[in-house]
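Cross-check.
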Amino acid sequence: MPANDVLVASVVAFDSKEFNVKGVFKDFFCPIGVGVRFDDEEAFQNDYCEAVAASASRHRIRLNRRVFDSYSVARVLGGLDSAADFYEGLVKELRAHIGFVHVFYTVIPPAKVPRIFVYEMQTEVVNPVDFLKEHKAGYVALCAWKYLQLEAERPDRV
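Predicted model, tokenized:
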């Protein structure tokens, strides 16, 4: 590496959530996850602090902490639309730091895969949707694992 090149640390953040849609005949469920890569961790952290303060000020939120969960923002601002506006402004200010957004989801259609065999002490047969719901807490780790797998397969990686 030449002397004037600076190694910049990137970071990837992951989160996951249930995705539920009420249906006429059946409800739809799948776990959904996201991984966001920030290419310059230090620059992102500096701008993040400023962006959160600015967004909180615009929405007249008293800033007790620098991290907000969607439930708290929706509760404080009085609904999901206001929370979406809060986060949209935040993302707009931080967009330049986002290197890539990975979206992950898993669907196991019961019509094609009517049952899943779980091998433990005793073999258990479960419905695929129930299987996904039972493992939703660990889905964020699966998203990180898949991201690392995809990154390792990229042709521009050494």
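The first helix runs from residue 41 to 58. The chain is about 40% helix and 25% strand. Passed to J.P. for a second look.
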